[in-house]
């Protein structure tokens, strides 16, 4: 569970989460994103107009990223990330297929780390 591979995957996932989380929270995003298709833009606009959804998702991404970087409560952080990574994947699958590669990367990295920490989840299934 503490292999170099696991450490690299954990840190790469953490950096991705922190970067995109900050991108959601800062007034002017530092990662320029291409204009999404019309339906995706309508969806993102509606989330932004709530005033809290994108801020909460960004905050959760940063929190999870920090937990992964500092190796604190990693199994818990990975479970918190499941609904976020699933929604990222579904958003790109149904609304903005051009970004599907990044979504797949986040979901796969999360899956790899869950697999590597499976011992922590075993008691949930007994």
TrEMBL record:
Cell location:
Membrane
User: What keyword terms does UniProt attach to this protein?
Assistant: Membrane, Transmembrane, Transmembrane helix
Query: GO CC annotation: what is one?
Result: membrane
The leader peptide range reads: none
Q: What is its main location?
A: membrane
> Which topology term describes how it sits in the membrane?
Multi-pass membrane protein
Tell me the Pfam families matching this sequence.
DoxX
Q: Which InterPro entries match?
A: DoxX (IPR032808)
Q: Which residues cross the membrane?
A: 51-69, 76-94, 100-118
Identification of the protein by name: DoxX protein
């Amino acid at each position: 569970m503490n292999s170099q591979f696991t450490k690299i995957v954990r840190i790469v996932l953490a950096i991705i989460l922190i970067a995109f989380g900050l991108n959601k929270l800062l007034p002017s995003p530092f990662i320029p994103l291409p204009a999404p298709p019309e339906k995706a833009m309508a969806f993102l606009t509606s989330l932004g107009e709530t005033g809290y959804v994108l801020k909460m998702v960004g905050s959760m991404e940063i929190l999870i990223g920090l937990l992964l970087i500092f190796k604190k409560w990693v199994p818990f952080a990975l479970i918190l990330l499941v609904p976020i990574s699933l929604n990222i994947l579904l958003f790109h699958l149904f609304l903005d297929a051009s970004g599907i590669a990044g979504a797949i990367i986040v979901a796969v990295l999360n899956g790899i780390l869950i697999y590597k920490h499976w011992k922590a989840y075993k008691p949930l299934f007994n």
